[in-house]
Each structure stands twice: as C-alpha cells, then as structure tokens.
Amino acid sequence: MVYLEAWDDYQKAAEELYLRGPLKTRFVSEYRHKEGTLVLKVFDGVKCLKYRTDKQPDLKKFERLTLSLMCKMQNKREADMMDVDEAAKEGAEEPAITTPIQSPPPPAGKKARKKKKN
Amino acid sequence: MPLLSNDAFLSQLNKLYEKSRQQRTVYVTMKRYAYPQRKDTKALADPDTEYPCIVRATSGSTKISTLVNPHDTERFHQHYTNIAVLHMDSLKKKVKVKKPKASKAATKDATKAASKA
Q1: Residue B97 lies in a domain
Q2: The pTM is what?
Q3: Pair B55, B68: CB distance under 8 Å
Q4: Strands, DSSP E only, in A5-117?
Q5: Does residue B80 sit at the A interface (CB-CB below 8 Å)?
Q6: Residues of A in contact with B90 (CB under 8 A)
C-alpha cells in the first residue's frame, strides 16, 4: 500500500499502472463524509497506489483522473478524451458531442438589474 | 442488486451518498468490462477493441452497478462528477467559488445599492 503525496506523480503513476494491466486494474474512490476524506486507489492485484485528500479543490483533479481512466478502460482514443475540454471552449466540432449546457445567470443578477433600472 | 441502467444507477448513487452522511463510506469502483471477450484472444489483442466500463458502488450492504458504453462516457462522467462533487462537501474548502464574469459590474452596483438601502 503506497500513499503518494504529490498529485502529479500520482496521476502519472496511476495511468502507467493501468496501462500495464488493463484487464486486471481497478480504480476505487472511497469517500467518508464524517471524516471528510476522499481516498483514491488504483490496484492491479499486486501493486496498489493510493492518494488521500481532505481538500475540496482536489475534486477537480479527481474528475480529470476519472475521465482519463474511464477512457483508458474503454480503450477510447486519447483524442476523443481531450474533446470534452476543447468542445467546451471552442464549441462542439463533432456532431457526436453534445454542447455543454450553459447555466443560466444567477437570479440575483437579474433582480439586481431590475432594481437598478427602477 | 441487478445491473442498472446509467440513469437509474446515478439516481441510486445519489441516494447512497445521502444515506452515508452519518457514518458510512461510499466506495465507487471502475473497471474494464471484458467478460464477453475473455476467451477471444484476437479481440483482446486488438488495440482497437472498445469495452464498456463497469461501475460499481457500495455503501454498507447496498450494492449497485452499471455498464457504461464508450459513447455514453462523457454524459455519464459529467453526471457522475456532478453528484460526487455535490455530496463531497465535508472536504475542506480552500478557495471561494468565483461569481460568473458576465454580471460582475451589475452585481457590484447592486450590492452597493443594496447596502445603501
């Protein structure tokens, strides 16, 4: 059982470990609400890599790693995987990808504008 | 628990996270699903073979699972991370969430006006 401290090292090592044994390797996330901890684990039956965090900003990294590993599990090409971010920035180029739904502006802003006009 | 569709799985996962707020741990496991190809060495050796991804979630004695097909990945991932981030709110916050840029000026004026009033 190995806990890695640096995220970049962890992501790299996790992806490498997965690619070494794609049929055996699994990716587990453990979340304990009471303790406020999130533990990520990549295990191939022999080697186990873990990362522990209690910080909210790490969730973004967790999202990215999840997507990357999911694509590797499905054997999707890297290019497809990157499209998610690019599509969000440049607008969807491929018809297969649905354009991200833009969240409507917060209601507070609208009210504020109305107030200002009056 | 039988295999659920992606949407059913996500709504069950939502409940699972809610129920586990007091003491339990939620485990979400992801793995390549290559069971149909297990004896087909050609398919396994082919670098272009695409597989579904099996996602299992357990908490206490509740177990749910789903298969995510390659063309559903983006949608599933988006919904899954939304749910996860929504419920993982006992983690320490470091940076405050920024307000959207569009109505920045308007909200500034509004807060001023509001504070005056």
Answers
A1: no
A2: 0.70
A3: yes
A4: 26-32, 37-43, 48-53
A5: yes
A6: 33-36
B43 chain-A contacts, CB cut-off 8 A = none
Cα distance between residue A69 and residue A40, in whole Å: 12
Query: Position of tokens 């149909």?
Result: B36
List chain B pLDDT tens, one digit each, 117 residues: 578 999 999 999 999 999 998 888 999 999 999 888 888 888 888 878 888 999 999 998 889 999 999 888 999 999 999 999 899 888 888 756 567 766 555 656 666 666 666
Interface test with A, best of B32, B82, B99 (most A CBs within 10 A): B32
Domain annotation for chain A: domains and CATH numbers: 2-80 (3.30.720.10)
- The partner residue sitting opposite A73, judged by closest CB among B24, B47, B53, is B53
Structural domain contains residue B61:
yes
* B contacts of A53 (beta carbons < 8 Å): 91
Residue B102 belongs to some domain of the structure = no
Question: In this predicted complex, what is the ipTM?
Answer: 0.73
Report the CATH number at residue B54: 3.30.720.10
Domain that holds residue B60: 1-35+48-92
